[in-house]
Design a protein that fits this description.
The complex is a heterodimer of chains A (375) and B (357). Chain A has 375 residues and is an alpha+beta fold. Chain A has two domains: 235 residues, Rossmann fold, CATH 3.40.50; 130 residues, Nucleic acid-binding proteins (OB fold (Dihydrolipoamide Acetyltransferase, E2P), Beta Barrel). In chain A, 21% of the residues lie in helices and 35% in strands. In chain A, the strands form four sheets. Chain A has a six-stranded mixed beta sheet, with helices on both faces. In chain A, helix 2 packs across helix 3 and helix 2 runs parallel beside helix 4. The radius of gyration of chain A is 24 Å and the shape is globular. Helix content of chain B is 24%, strand content 35%. By secondary structure, chain B is an alpha+beta fold. The longest helix of chain B has 18 residues. In chain B, helix 2 packs across helix 3 and helix 2 runs parallel beside helix 4. The two termini of chain B are 21 Å apart. Chain B has two domains: 226 residues, 3-Layer(aba) Sandwich (Rossmann fold); 114 residues, Nucleic acid-binding proteins (OB fold (Dihydrolipoamide Acetyltransferase, E2P)). The chains are: A alpha+beta (375), B alpha+beta (357).
């Protein structure tokens, strides 16, 4: 419903008697009208500070925040056209759940008669219809969180801010509520920024993800971009479950492209791969980190790059997670079929070149993704 | 037999029955995962095995010896908990060694035993650290090492990975089976995470309302759940459940007739998201559905669909397919194979055709 721009925003906390802390460092994010953006990172990465600056609960140290092109970062929170769902819920204890949810609409002109209908709609979407007449204190943590979320969503504000919106969700409800939430946000063209430490949630809900670490924006891209071409080792190892396999490695120029060697934890060569057609500055040998996405690894049949000795083979009902020892390196692969292999069995393992990412071992920056594509 | 046998354990408190007729056997070297919602009696069961609580009825035997009335310390049990429960004033070494020092084991032997288990758990470099100097992952490894160091016959692990981050949890999931097997203990592993249970458990006991609702290998629990509640506990996204009524030996699922010879009356038809296929172009006999949202997960994408009568359905498709579906509402066609339908009695929740153990 509105665009949102964080224009080189910096946040410095100056705790009394301690050194200043730069929590957010010159972050620039442009959120399109109706876009859903995730701020993803571990605790202390600055994501919540960013959300609180947009909401107006924290001052901006440097830079500007604009909604629909208009600077808002000096306005009081109530004048910013933002709705926020708090991680700590912040429900009004003396109000029933339905009053908590409807409260935000009371001062919204024109909402008048259909408040009840809208409360019912959002409550049913978030599976809290049966607790509408209760008080917050008797709700489970999950229900309180959904009430807080409902109170923010019902407003359909120009910008909605959601802080860890689904962290307390019961696992059986997670997928369906994510689905309904995403559908609701898209249907009402709601510009949304949400904070999460859960990469699965970020990927599932967001159009674009801003990956944060130590106050710095590591990458801002679609889930697909984040998965297919992570900017650096941090992003590569933060996103994905199971996480990307990462090995120390070496690239040597070959006649047609390069040859790759991956090392085990003991520093000895574990496997070798040829990457024909890859042009990489490797006139001499060059140290790299090799990343391989687990679910692109092929095993069981066919041509192989190496032999993997099975360490564990776990069938999870809809996918197998297989952990191999490949020449001393531990490799995790995922397949969507069960595989009849016991610990100790030897299986052919193939690393398709499109599964492989190379990173600079010193800076962590990505050097190449999906080596086939460069052909 | 060597290992742990629980027969007909029951336990009640003033507030009501907590455990009813629980029977389980865990062989030495086997891992049994106990899965169930919170408040279902899992912790009470562990306390009864450990000897911290007495059962009202039934017996606990270890390696063929009835231990129901034995003192906790004579049972040969190791335990680790989700909150680590380390002694804050001991360093990691002393924490790990505490079960042995209680038995007055010579210092040299103590040092060796702690060293071996610490190395296996990759914490040999932090043995001098106090718990507050350890990361959560290291704390959990220390707690596990302490549980293992005395080479217990029975190892009770109460959701030990609950409080470590996703990455470490995953690492431990790969590491634990080998580690536990090398100690040849009978292991009971309590968890609320069905993936952990399927990965680690040789067999799974699903505990609900104080009873064992299903007792089977992981594969069977997933493929042939005893009840609708078990089906909901195992699977992500959760199984689709569509209410229907049996008429003339068949039911309607999303407007399609599927035969149901053994069923009668109101049923719930369960279809796992991975058993639905979704097409962007019309397919013969495909069920027209509206696609409302696409949610990529790690390896796949979850599609949020509305069936012909507005039914909510989740389906999973491959990662590369998902991008093609786009962001806006659109029509798609859905198909499923009748053999993938799981039928549950709408009143009792029991799976139709399921044999109780």
């Amino acid at each position: 419903m509105a665009t949102l721009l964080l224009d080189n925003v910096t946040k410095v906390y100056r705790p009394r008697g301690k050194a200043p802390v730069e929590a957010v460092k010159r972050v620039r994010l442009d959120v399109k009208d109706g876009e859903i953006v995730a701020l993803l990172g571990s605790s202390g990465c600055g994501k919540t500070s960013m959300l609180r600056m947009i909401a107006g609960f924290e001052d901006v140290t440097e830079g500007a925040i604009k909604i629909d092109g208009k600077e808002i970062h000096r306005l009081p929170p109530a004048e910013r056209d933002v709705a926020m769902a708090f991680e700590g819920y912040s429900l009004y204890p003396p109000l029933k759940v339905k009053e908590n949810i409807g409260f935000a609409l009371l001062r919204q002109r024109g909402a008048g008669t259909d408040i009840d209908a809208r409360v019912k709609e959002i409550a049913s979407l978030l599976e809290i219809s049966d607790v509408l007449d209760r008080y917050p204190s008797v709700l489970s943590a999950g229900q309180q969180q959904r009430t807080s979320l409902a109170r923010a969503l019902i407003r359909r504000a120009p910008v909605s801010l959601l802080d860890e919106p689904m962290s307390q969700l019961e696992p059986q409800l997670r997928a369906i509520l994510r689905a309904r939430l995403k559908d609701y946000l898209i249907a009402h063209k709601m510009t949304t920024v949400f904070v999460t430490h859960d990469q699965t949630e970020a990927i599932a809900l967001a159009d674009r993800i801003a990956v944060m670490e130590k106050g710095e924006l590591q990458q801002f891209g679609t889930p697909d971009e984040i998965k297919q071409s992570p900017n650096n080792l941090f992003v590569a190892s933060f996103v994905g479950e199971p996480p990307m396999n990462i090995f120390a490695g070496e690239v040597i120029a070959a006649r047609d492209g390069v040859a790759l060697t991956g090392f085990g934890p003991d520093g000895k060569p574990a496997f070798a791969l040829a990457a024909p057609g890859l042009e990489l500055d490797a006139s001499r040998s060059r140290k790299v980190h090799i990343g391989i996405r687990p679910h692109l690894i092929q095993t069981g049949t066919g041509a192989s790059d190496a032999t993997g000795r099975v360490i564990t083979n776990h069938w999870l009902g809809d996918q197998s997670h297989i952990c191999f020892d490949v020449g001393g390196a531990t490799v995790v692969g995922v397949t969507d079929k069960p595989l009849a292999a016991k610990p100790g069995d030897a299986l052919p393992v193939r690393f398709p070149l499109r599964a492989i990412h190379l990173f600079d071992p010193e800076t962590g920056d990505a050097l190449a993704h999906g080596l086939e594509r460069t052909r | 037999m060597s290992g742990l046998v629980l027969s007909h354990i029951s336990k009640g408190f003033k507030s009501g029955k907590v455990l009813q007729d629980v029977s389980l056997d865990v062989n030495a070297g086997e891992i049994v995962a106990i899965v169930g919602p919170s408040g279902t009696g899992k912790t009470v069961l562990l306390r009864i095995i450990a000897g911290l609580q007495e059962p009202d009825g039934g017996t606990v035997s270890i390696d063929g010896v009835d231990m129901t009335d034995a003192a906790p310390e004579s049972r040969g049990i190791g335990m680790a908990f989700q909150n680590f429960a380390l002694f804050p004033h001991f360093n990691a070494f002393d924490n790990i060694g505490s079960p042995l020092t209680a038995r007055h084991i010579p210092a040299a032997s103590l040092k060796e035993k702690v060293g071996v288990v610490a190395k296996l758990l990759k914490i040999d470099h932090v043995l001098g650290h106090a718990p507050r100097e350890l990361s959560n992952g290291q704390k959990q490894r220390t707690a596990l090492a302490r549980a293992l160091v005395a080479q217990p016959k029975v190892l009770l692990l109460d959701d030990p990975l609950r409080n470590v981050d996703a990455k470490l949890r995953y690492e431990m999931r790969l590491e634990l089976p080998r580690l536990l097997r090398s100690y040849n203990a009978a292991v009971i592993y309590v968890t609320q995470d069905y993936k952990e249970a399927m990965a680690l458990g040789d067999r799974i006991a699903v505990l609900r309302g104080g009873r064992i609702e299903q007792w089977a290998p992981p594969r069977d629990v997933y493929a042939t759940p005893a009840s609708v509640e078990v089906a909901k506990l195992f699977g992500d996204p959760t199984i689709n459940l569509l209410p229907s009524t049996v008429e003339q030996g068949g039911i309607q699922i999303l407007g399609r007739r599927v035969s149901a010879p053994d069923a009668s009356g109101p049923v719930l038809a369960g279809l796992r998201p991975e058993h639905l296929t979704v097409s962007r172009i019309e397919i013969p006999d495909g069920i027209p559905c509206e696609l409302d949202a696409v949610m990529p997960v790690n390896v796949r994408s979850v599609l949020y669909l509305r069936g012909p009568a507005g039914e909510e359905i989740l389906a999973t498709v491959g990662e590369s397919e998902a991008v093609k579906f786009g962001r806006d509402h659109r029509q798609v066609w859905v198909d499923f194979a009748p053999e993938h339908v799981l039928l549950f009695d709408a009143a009792t929740g029991a799976r139709i055709g399921h044999q109780a153990h």
